[in-house]
Design goal:
The chain has 9 helices and 4 strands; from the N terminus they run βαβαααααααβαβ. It is mainly alpha-helical. It has a single domain, classed as Cyclin A, domain 1 (Orthogonal Bundle). The strands form 2 sheets. It has a two-stranded antiparallel sheet. A two-stranded antiparallel sheet has the order 2-3.
Length: about 280
């Protein structure tokens, strides 16, 4: 297995592999955008760094998780993430065998259910992917058919508490996943944090890199909302949103000063991720 240097930056070659994989399985068909901005008219959609489009982000993060599962190089798994030992439900459905790779739609449906039920923001989807890939690097494990749900759930639990001002309690998630005991939920979160070495800092530069790469992926397969001409009202809305985002990131940096920078950590990981 090839060795990689740890870092929170996207590898374009591996994103191209995602696109090829989606084309191979015919999940989407490329359709170029027809509207182009000019000096007289600027076309924009509702997706910005401060307020990413919810639907796009959920779909693109689900693609990344699917890519990890499909291209895993080993079956290394920790007991805490093994659904065969700690099932999320009483039994698996006929379409979700414990040894069968989930398709993209299954992963997307699982994410969409959690995000909609817990009313999580689209920004949480980006942070979820950051934490998920950071876990694969730190713990030197791979995500597979019997572990993807619990790994993804652990990343969502942590992302919702770190990012959102009004975090969802673990007991609330147990109302969504009714067959999962609260003790199991708490232990999953605790072990996830320990494996991350309690490094939950996500610099704004890393967040922005993830956002633009996910947005590029969405535009490649025409998942974005139709672009509309920029008018005075939409310009004022974007300006207000940008100002609110500035204040948010200032406060976020103040709260995260006590954690060491993730960019200062450097070691090697043997299992494959989509980031380099």
């Amino acid at each position: 297995m090839r060795q990689r240097k740890l870092g929170d930056t996207f590898c374009r070659k591996q994103w191209e592999d995602i696109l090829d994989l989606l084309s191979k399985h015919r999940l989407w068909e490329y359709r170029p955008l027809n509207k182009c901005s000019s000096c007289s008219t600027i076309y924009i959609d509702d997706c910005t760094v401060s307020h990413p489009n919810f639907r796009n982000m959920i779909k693109c993060v689900a693609m990344a998780v699917y890519y990890h599962i499909y291209n895993r190089k080993s079956e290394v798994i920790l007991d805490i993430f093994d659904e065969r030992l700690y099932p999320l439900g009483k039994k698996l459905s006929s379409s979700e065998s414990e040894n069968q790779e989930p398709d993209y739609r299954t992963i997307h449906r699982f994410m969409r259910t959690l995000f909609n039920s817990a009313q999580l923001s689209s920004e949480c989807a980006i942070i979820t992917l950051v934490y998920l890939e950071r876990l694969l690097t730190y713990a030197e494990i791979d995500i597979g058919p019997s572990s993807w749900k619990r790994i993804l759930l652990g990343a969502i639990l942590l992302a919702s508490k770190v990012w959102d001002d009004q975090a969802v309690w673990n007991v609330d998630y147990c109302q969504i996943l009714r067959d999962m005991p609260i003790d199991d939920m708490n232990e999953l979160e605790r072990r996830f944090l320990e494996l991350l070495q309690f490094n939950i800092n996500v610099p704004s530069s890393i967040y922005v890199k993830y956002y633009f790469e996910l947005r590029t992926l969405a535009e490649k397969y025409d998942l974005t909302l139709p672009a509309e001409p920029l008018n005075d009202i939409r310009a004022q809305t974007l300006e207000a949103s940008s100002r609110a985002c500035d204040h948010y990131f200032v406060n976020l940096r103040k709260n995260l000063k006590r954690w060491s920078s993730y960019n200062s950590i450097s070691f090697q990981r043997k299992s494959m991720t989509i980031l380099s």
